[in-house]
Amino acid sequence: MNFASYFETVKNNLINWLSDDGLKVLGIAIAAFIIIKVVNKVIKKSLRVMLAVRREAESLGEVKRQQTLERIMMGVATVSISTIALLMVLQQMGLDIGPILAGAGIVGLAVGFGGQYLIRDIITGLFIVLENQYRIGDVVNLDDTGGLVEDITLRMTTLRDLNGTVHHVPHGDIKRVANLSKTFSRVNMNIGVSYSADLDQVVTVINRVGNELALDEAWSEKIITPPQFLRVDDFGDSSIVIKIVGETQPIKQWEVSGEFRKRIKAAFDKAGIEIPFPQRVIHQATVAE
């Protein structure tokens, strides 16, 4: 058989395959492509409805959460559909996919045993994102580790504490989550005043300073409820302990607390209200001669 006849035979076989099995393979590929596009659009629209992300009030944390869920679910859908389409193509080309499926099962079992901690981290991370336990930009305590959430992946959360130290916390190791900045934050402080102070005057000064702070243009947007007197919290050794609370925008409680302390010190000094320090009275016994 010369080269021309061989080439002609190959061409005829290729044309025959393309006209029969080739069209089926092309149909599978086009169908898979269309299904992936449709499923991805459904996922996006469904998540927007479920998470109720409003364009006029969307925050970076909500957008990041939505994008994370979209990436995860779209990735899973794309890989699943593509794998099914590939197996169908191989079967259409005359390959026996039984051994391939058996081999994939063995490999999956081995990966399952070896990556059980990774799987645990991923499953836990998925629930953290779905349940909206915390988002990027929140301040949280994850067991004994606290800080600002800088990044969230399926496997771990990245925190930066006040010292600038970055902590990478695997989701599978998290037992308790405390979110310090979800929806709002709270000013919660104790201030000690002298036992000789007029408590009615103390309450008046505290409430006035809190209201003035809330009306200040530089601080009004950060404060939801002005810091106010709540109760006499304790009788200490050297002072009467006053409990003061207020509500602020998320993560603004420390700024507001610091400014309030500065103003309350100046107001107490002006009103003659003493903030005592620990004192100890020593009685010296006299020895009779």
UniProtKB/TrEMBL annotation:
Residues 187-275 form the Mechanosensitive ion channel MscS C-terminal domain. Residues 118-182 form the Mechanosensitive ion channel MscS domain. The keyword Transmembrane applies. It holds the Pfam family MS_channel_2nd. The chain crosses the membrane at residues 22-40, 72-91, 97-119. Keywords: Cell membrane, Membrane, Transmembrane, Transmembrane helix. Belongs to the MscS (TC 1.A.23) family. This is Mechanosensitive ion channel family protein. The lineage of its organism: Bacteria, Pseudomonadati, Bacteroidota, Cytophagia, Cytophagales.
